[in-house]
């Protein structure tokens, strides 16, 4: 044995110095068991757990379908019978566990009988199957989602309750079943579902009023119907209020754009023709002259221009009045189509500055210019084109 151990040791040392190729991948059939969301390690999927989960789920389904050594009989409406295992029912639902203990306490012999009434037999079967394998058929869920929601709450199966709520939220909630779903959400303590169904009812009130669910609720629960009607009225008033608020907002915006457009025209008028006591250097101005067409707008601009000419903090941001004047001058330069001959001060210089502005500022100014032009419907803005003219506006 000593020579054999020495030989093995030498062979192992020689093998350790060799560079072996990477091992081949696992056999192909194992890759079929991989599911989306599988864990990754070193770039490859860990498949064993996923295979086990799929196989285990299929095993529980076969156990339920085959009824091997069942000891519980579940009786449903119309004489339906479903066989099940007490251990599985007791582990999945604390309520069923209590019912089974109570039945055993009364000395019932096996099999133990449990009654589930008020819901269709196939809904009960889908519920019991979920207790076994946490799975369901799409068609069964679509048809029995409301009974399953009730049973999941009654027998305290939170996983199934979450599934029912999610299915209703993402497609199974319709005009026909929304009233029933709303009432059940109140009874089953499902606040998110209550909010979703309530919103759907108040936003589709005309269609919901024609459903059988609404008519049944009207007879069985008139107080709830009254609350829903009040909610619908509040929703309608809220919509009217928001529409009026939006209408007022647009009217205010329109008024502001119109005032800006008038200010631009008055600005050109002041530096082209002169007005009151301010104007171009080659114009003789009279203090008491006939009021111009721009009225208060021209008077306000005259005061602003005089302040701008004498203010010591004229740099942008130094004075709020000067800042406003800078903005008016820049807006004019963006609207003016002939800066070379324009008589408005700094028009050409601001054109050059505009080309160096950031994209973010440029977008804001373009939107403002577009809306002002749309307000006046003056695509070419002739008043700005003719700013070097000696004719009156």
UniProtKB/TrEMBL annotation:
Residues 70-140 form the BTB domain. This is BTB domain-containing protein. It holds the Pfam family zf-TAZ. SUPFAM superfamilies: POZ domain (SSF54695), TAZ domain (SSF57933). One of its GO terms (molecular function) is zinc ion binding. The keyword Protein biosynthesis does not apply. Gene3D superfamilies: 1.25.40.420, Potassium Channel Kv1.1, Chain A (3.30.710.10), TAZ domain (1.20.1020.10). InterPro entries: BT1/2/3/4/5 (IPR044513), BTB/POZ_dom (IPR000210), SKP1/BTB/POZ_sf (IPR011333), TAZ_dom_sf (IPR035898), Znf_TAZ (IPR000197). It comes from Gossypium stocksii. Pathway: Protein modification; protein ubiquitination. Keywords: Metal-binding, Ubl conjugation pathway, Zinc, Zinc-finger. It comes from the Eukaryota. One of its GO terms (biological process) is regulation of DNA-templated transcription. PANTHER family: BTB/POZ AND TAZ DOMAIN-CONTAINING PROTEIN 3-RELATED (PTHR46287), BTB_POZ AND TAZ DOMAIN-CONTAINING PROTEIN 4 (PTHR46287:SF11).
